Amino acid sequence: xxxxxxxxxxxxxxxxxxxxxxxxxxxxxxxxxxxxxxxxxxxxxxxxxxxxxxxxxxxxxxxxxxxxxxxxxxxxxxxxxxxxxxxxxxxxxxxxxxxxxxxxxxxxxxxxxxxxxxxxxxxxxxxxxxxxxxxxxxxxxxxxxxxxxxxxxxxxxxxxxxxxxxxxxxxxxxxxxxxxxxxxxxxxxxxxxxxxxxxxxxxxxxxxxxxxxxxxxxxxxxxxxxxxxxxxxxxxxxxxxxxxxxxxxxxxxxxxxxxxxxxxxxxxxxxxxxxxxxxxxxxxxxxxxxxxxxxxxxxxxxxxxxxxxxxxxxxxxxxxxxxxxxxxxxxxxxxxxxxxxxxxxxxxxxxxxxxxxxxxxxxxx
Length: 365
Description:
This protein is α+β, with helices and mostly antiparallel strands and 365 residues long. It has five helices and 23 strands. Strands 3-12-15-14-13-16 form a six-stranded antiparallel β-barrel. It has a five-stranded antiparallel sheet with strand order 17-18-19-1-23. Strands 4-11-9-6 form a four-stranded antiparallel sheet, with no helix packed on it. Helix 2 packs antiparallel against helix 3 (131-161). The two termini are 16 Å apart.
């Protein structure tokens, strides 16, 4: 028998698919089952790198990027550890710059005092202040210390050169400010770099944020949300656990949607910043019905349809009403068209749909 013929006259008329065709087309079925699942809200989301887990590394002073036997410039995608040497710059500083650098040093020292004060304040509020705020304050303190120390070294260097007015040279080691991955690299050995030139972008993706927009009609679901999960097309049938970390205070006037942020663990590094996917938000209620794999339901002229194997070579189309969409399956209404235990086509559904109607003489096949 051929793999396909003209479409049947009736969308619910039993179809004939020979055993040979089933084997050749690799038609597979799966039993439908009764299931009660949490009712969920689906929204589109995009992954983001947390701001406190991202750093742009620049050179503290103009100079030339050099190579030494003690380190190698990290490559794109390479993981680095906090305080690991990632670059060495040979600086050339003119003595007249002493006044400018001394002024900047004083400003850096003031910034350090402010950062230390804020870090100490939040540390005393442990249990009240959020972990995010404490982590951000700690990172700001480390950045302020590094900036202050850099200016202290520059002033000491210029002090030794100020009596001669000549250019002084010093090798400055640049270290990674956090654990993470090299997301971007813009350096070449021997290149002249300035203070405004980014050298590396380092990101820590052990936990990502997912930014989503929830329409105002669905805001009640967010307020009652218990759990959530995140799916991407790169990993079909797999859901990553997610939790709500914050939501906006106002609805966007143009889109009529409320911004919501979810945190998604990513210890294995399988997700990347900028990926689009779907967030399934459990609303606290449940729905019962007949669960089938997603591949078992197709659209026929605007009507969801499943194909049930009702005999050795007999397949019967049955209309379906979708109650709930999950990451890997659909829950259909238990209205008699489909019941638990029915074997629905999950692979080769197109070949079944395009098969001939069951011959009248084969009604009991």
